[in-house]
């Protein structure tokens, strides 16, 4: 059994590639896995977003705008997850497509369109989106990332329970390539330069985070 934690910037284009590679590999190999998409932001993630999109790192107004947009997108994804795992997956893939491939600007109008596109109940979405619970769960996501030493997106924690009851935790920073995820799914991973930590998972995490299992 595999469990996968994908730490993502919901508006990040690199994260979209990682998500697709992982999902496609699992489908191709008929491998069951619990997939947890964990939306995350911090100063480093905002910095990375500005650099990847060749935006001015010294423009404070722009930096504040991206910071606010990224945090808003965390709340959006968490609210979407309340309506089911498949809907939440469709939501983040659609949002990233609109922003990174179709170059649309983040706005309430865009979110309304994505909500309609993926078949979410609009009234329920906005009620959840503005709730304290959604904010608290995003805080819990940040705590989980801190426990695992995740500072950037995309970062992926793959937990393999096939040989170790405590789970072999493999933390990968950056995009997860097709070759790497295929090696893991096929259980033939020996070594890989992109792996920054490989430790029994249950030694890395301080508490239960079952509420984070929003996608499968």
User: Which regions are unreliable across 5 or more consecutive residues at pLDDT < 50?
Assistant: 209-216
What is the count of DSSP helices, taking H or I runs of 4+ residues?
8
* N/C terminus separation: 13 Å
Question: What profile does the largest beta sheet have?
Answer: 5 strands, mixed
Provide the helix percentage.
40-55%
Per DSSP E runs of 2 or more residues, the count of β-strands stands at 5
Q: What is the overall silhouette?
A: globular
Helix and strand string, N-terminal first? EHEHHHHHHEEHE
Rg, alpha carbons: 17 Å
Cross-sheet strand order for the largest sheet: 2-1-3-4-5
- Secondary structural class: alpha+beta
Beta fraction: 5-15%
Overall pLDDT metric = 85
Please characterize this protein's 3D structure:
- The protein has 216 residues and is α+β, with helices and mostly antiparallel strands.
- Helix content is 50%, strand content 15%.
- It has helices at 13-28, 43-52, 60-81, 85-100, 108-117, 122-129, 132-148, 178-185, and strands at 2-8, 33-39, 155-160, 168-173, 195-200.
- A 5-stranded mixed β-sheet has the order 2-1-3-4-5, sandwiched between helices.
- Strand 3 and strand 4 (168-173) form a beta hairpin.
- The longest helix is centred in the N-terminal third of the chain and has 22 residues, at 60-81.
- It is globular and about 45 Å long.
- The protein starts with a strand and ends in a 16-residue tail after the last strand.
- Mean pLDDT is 85; it is low at 209-216.
